[in-house]
């Protein structure tokens, strides 16, 4: 070294050594990452759809790991020494050296656990076990994150005993059944086709005594489609066939000719009172929307009203019809609509059209509480009375309404005046009886003998009926 200066060759060698050292350290660090970097434990959530395991309990298991992503997932049901795999999935997480890229950060696994899906399941308890393996490295394969949830296993359906006798009902008609359930019953009543009619505690009865008013849909003609049901909170079910005879009442057919004068009168008025309707671009197209989509929307409204029906008998006497009312159309007419000689629609008329004099007073069919008093789509100005336990009466096409929601009205009290609002071809009353939103034939309820023999006799002191 001269003049304190390091030769260039030595400086180059020392610089090269430092670079090699840095590169070496980087390689060692990279190797350490590849060999040792594992993903964090995934988050796991178990959400059963029912408070226990019965026939088929749905269970949602959520897995989440946004860093390197999910890898192997597993859901098992453990009872004693038996372990059953309900679901297993494998995802590809990021490699240890990757800082970004495609990966599965979240996954949901839906499984069903119960006597119909798991062999050998017995009553008692069982454990839902969810496992998720963190993303591994070359040298490290960490244990899985495991979350467990213990659930009761209930496999015995509720007791269900039929108490009433002789159940003869008619297609489109009604009936009542009295029964007793065991303490595990959380839901019970009558299934008729795709309709369900809930049961209620029998007034004055013992613990477990119930009754259900039920209707037979107009298109149900098989008595085995009507069953008594008791279900516990994990959906174990007991069914009982109880209908002795189903009297057929096939619907009649009717042909409706649509005239421009009628469409021009009813369509704009209904659209003006129902702003949520879309303009379909033509008078006939708007009518078909009203006759179909709006009709179904009105049906849903009536079902929703039934959910708020009072759990008590508000009536004690037979139901009234419109005085001197002439029947213009009966229950369950199958209507085919024609316009300019071609068929354009089909609907079922589920009520009675009764005509008297213009603007005739409309009496309440029986004592009840006003559940609705307003314009209601195809029914125009309408009143709905709640008579208790899901039984309601509908009065449509009124020219005037004389009651308000919440009013208690007596049998025969005037509710309004007949008219031609809504889909009415002239001044008349559209009258319908509804049971939990299902239109049923009102002729039965106009008959004191039918009420006495088919309803009051089975309920006994629970319904103090005065013919």
What does this structure look like?
There is one protein chain. Helices cover 17% and strands 38% of the residues. It contains 4 helices and 31 strands. The chain has helices spanning 8-36, 260-273, 283-306, 448-459; strands at 43-48, 57-64, 72-79, 82-90, 106-113, 124-132, 145-153, 160-162, 168-170, 174-181, 187-192, 195-198, 200-201, 209-215, 226-231, 237-241, 245-247, 253-258, 326-329, 333-339, 342-349, 352-355, 361-363, 368-375, 381-388, 391-398, 400-401, 408-409, 414-417, 429-435, 438-440. A hairpin with a 2-residue loop joins strand 20 (333-339) and strand 21. The chain is extended and about 120 Å long. The protein starts with 7 loop residues before the first helix and ends in an 8-residue tail after the last helix. 34% of the residues are buried.
Overall 3D form: extended
What's the pLDDT, averaged over the residues? 92
Name the beta content range. Answer: 35-45%
Question: Percentage of helical residues?
Answer: 10-25%
User: How much is the radius of gyration in Å?
Assistant: 35 Å
Distance between the termini: 130 Å
Total helical elements = 4
Which structural class do you get from the secondary structure elements?
alpha+beta
